[in-house]
Structure formats: structure tokens, C-alpha cells
């Protein structure tokens, strides 16, 4: 789990705690007043709060958030209209929670499509403005008496402010943690604490045709750390520029050595590139310089980008990748099928290879949908002139199913885990083309 996911979890737990406490706290008060609408809404909050905790626990954060959002919004609106109607003695306060809900939407949905995020942030805000600016409500037997609403206003406002404070605190502490990690990353790069692992890609004849470089951090206190722990913080803090440069230089050095090694001469090397690196104005010239400095045949180097890099600035990313391809460097589209790119966009993406994401490979043996998706990707790739490699191949049956669908290049634990250089060279010797 990366640092952002940890923040989302914390926010969901705070939201669930508020739902449970207010549900459990107010239900008996409403029951004592024979206000069954209030009891019903509070029991709903309590149950959904428990549901949010369980879903978050089971790593289903997205489902947990949409339940939290939907139920809280509906309960707040119903309470504001039917129960918490302002009077000369007590203001309406239930709607204050809508602002907290908006803050959560802004952060938790930050990686969703912009229209979805904007709508989800705007709806609670606009509803807040409506309730805060009018005395509107529908008086009925469910309307709360002023004596209850006078102290309820203090309790609910204090609770909403406390919730806003907790969320701001969690966000700030997350940022500070990412900042500290960024500083530590820079120190780690200076102290040569990073190591490249290599994972081979094989063809259907069990021969190594390419290798992917995957970075690890040999942390002095915490031991060997995978990229899930630090890549996001490296991107946020800008340390990815230093780290990416280091990875690229290591890759260039290896390619130079490999050009003199008969086993490795024909093997290409893939390097993962993040969008921050790609958008740096000097990125293309930096890669060209390295190719020259180490006298590397450009076709031996492949850069892996995910579809999400195109979301940042489509034309600029296309321009950068086109410039790299013109030099002869290969471009692979990583985690293919998990993004939102349409076929019309795909046509304009300057790529040579697509990497079928491991989520489609996992159940390929049994799931006809995954089989249909992979068959379409293979067909699409062949008609557009891309090669296809499947990642996350863990068992022989997956490889066989992929082969039957026309995918003839594989990467995964079935063949080899990412390994250190010496092990890779031995492995390649045993599986040379
Ligand atoms: P990725 O590019 O999708 O890399 C493949 C990930 O899948 C690797 O995780 C690899 O160890 C793992 N993997 C390989 N075969 C299997 C398999 O059969 N089953 C399963 N379950 N997993 C498999 P890793 O090394 O932890 O890297 C995670 C991600 O970190 C990479 O995903 C890549 O996006 C990023 N990353 C790694 N190195 C770099 C780097 O130098 N620069 C940048 N910007 N990102 C990097
Ligand atoms: Ca990759
Ligand atoms: Ca991948």
C-alpha cells in the first residue's frame, strides 16, 4: 500500500467513526422523542458506518467511499429538510457536514475522471449554500423541537468542525510524510542505496528476448524496499527526476556491456518512465546524450509508460515519445487496458508494444471475458503494428491460454522473479535465443 492509499484509508475510517458515533448517539435521543424518521436515519448511518469499516478493511476503498458519500448525503439532506428546520431560537446545523463531505470528495476522487470529481464536489457544496442561505424546510411531526435543537446545534457544529480538523490533520501529516520521504530518497540516491533488479521477458520458445529493469531501495534501516513504497513519494517530491536519471544511466551502462556479450547482445532493456520525467524539457536530449555516450543501439532500449501519462498533456507526451521513436528507441504501453484511453487516442499514441496488464492474465484460464479482452488486444495490436507482451504470468496454464490467443511474449513469476544482474546473466545463458 502506498502513502496515498494509507491517507484514503485514514479518511474513510474517520468518516466511518463519525457515522457510527452520530448514528449510535442520536438514535436513542430520537427514540425517546418517538421520532422514528430520526431513529431510522441514524440506524442507517450506524449500519453503513460499520459497512464502510469492513469494506475499507477489505481494501475496497472506492466502494466504501461511494457508500459513505451516498448515505451521508441522503441522511444530511433529509434531516435538513424534515427535522432540522431553523427557527428564531436555533439555527440549522445538519448541513455543516456537507462541507466536510465535499473536502473528502476533493481528495479521495482526485484520480477519478475530472467531471466525476467536479460533480461530486459541487453537489454537496451547492446543497450547503441552499440550506445555509434559507430557512426552507418541510414542517411535520418529524420536525425537532427547539429545546433539542438548541443543544444539538452545539454538538453537531462542534462535531463537524472536529471532523474537518481531523481530515485536514491527516492530509497535512500525509504531505509531511511524503516530504520527509522525498528528502530521504535524495539522500539515498546520493549514498548509492538503490539497486536495479531485472526481470526477463520470454517468447513462446522459452528464449529471453527482453528484460525489464525494476528499481529497489536497499534502505539502511528498513532493508530492501519495493517501488510501491517510494515511487509515488519520489514523483510528488520531484526526487523521481534524480532517481529516473540514475536508472537510465545504469540501463545505458548495462546495454553497453551487453553489446559485448554474445548472450545479451540481442536482448533489449526496458526502463519504466514516469510522467514527471517525460515532461521535463530536457528529457529527450538527456536520453539521446546517454545513447551517444555509451554508444548504444537505440532499438535495444525500450521505455515503458502507462496510459495515464497521456492524461497529463496528450500532445506534449505524443511529441516527446515521437521524438524518442525517431531516434529509434522503443516505446511500450504498460498496464495496458487499465486506463481510460479510447481507441481513437490509441491510434495517435506513438508506441511499439503493449503490455497486457496482469489483471487480465490472472483469471485468463477460466474467465471468458478476460479471454475476449486479450484476444481483442492481440488483434488490435497486430492490425496497428504493435507487439504484445503479457505481464504477471504465474502458471503454465496462463501461458498456454495466452499462446492460444496469439500472445507470444511473456513476463512473470512462471519464468523468473526480478533478480540481480549476475543471476540474470546466468538465467539468460540458459535461455538464450
Ligand atoms: P510494472 O512496470 O507494472 O512492473 C511489473 C511489476 O510486477 C513489478 O513489480 C514486478 O515485480 C511484478 N511482477 C512481475 N511478474 C509478476 C507476476 O508473475 N505476478 C505478480 N503478481 N507480479 C509480478 P515491482 O518491481 O514492485 O514494480 C512495481 C511498479 O513500480 C512497476 O510496475 C513500475 O510501475 C514501478 N517501477 C519500478 N521500477 C521503476 C523505475 O525505475 N522508475 C519508475 N518510474 N517506476 C518504476
Ligand atoms: Ca513496467
Ligand atoms: Ca505493468
Question: What report would you give on this structure?
Answer:
The protein has 433 residues and is of the alpha/beta class. It has 2 domains: 3-177, no CATH class; 193-430, EAL domain (TIM Barrel), CATH 3.20.20. The chain has 17 helices and 9 strands. Helix 3 (61-83) packs antiparallel against helix 4, helix 4 packs parallel to helix 6 and helix 7 (227-237) packs across helix 8 (239-259). The longest helix has 45 residues, at 146-190. It is elongated. The mean pLDDT is 93. The chain binds ligand C2E and calcium ion (2 copies). The site of one calcium ion has 4 residues, from strand 6.
SSE layout:
Blueprint: H1 3-32, H2 36-57, H3 61-83, H4 96-108, H5 114-133, H6 146-190, E1 194-203, E2 208-219, E3 223-225, H7 227-237, H8 239-259, E4 268-272, H9 275-278, H10 283-293, E5 301-306, H11 308-312, H12 314-327, E6 330-336, H13 343-348, E7 353-356, H14 358-362, H15 368-384, E8 387-391, H16 396-404, E9 409-411, H17 421-430
Parallel strand pairs: 2-4, 4-5, 5-6, 6-7, 7-8, 8-9
Antiparallel strand pairs: 1-2, 1-9, 2-3
The structure holds ligand C2E and calcium ion (CA) (2 copies).
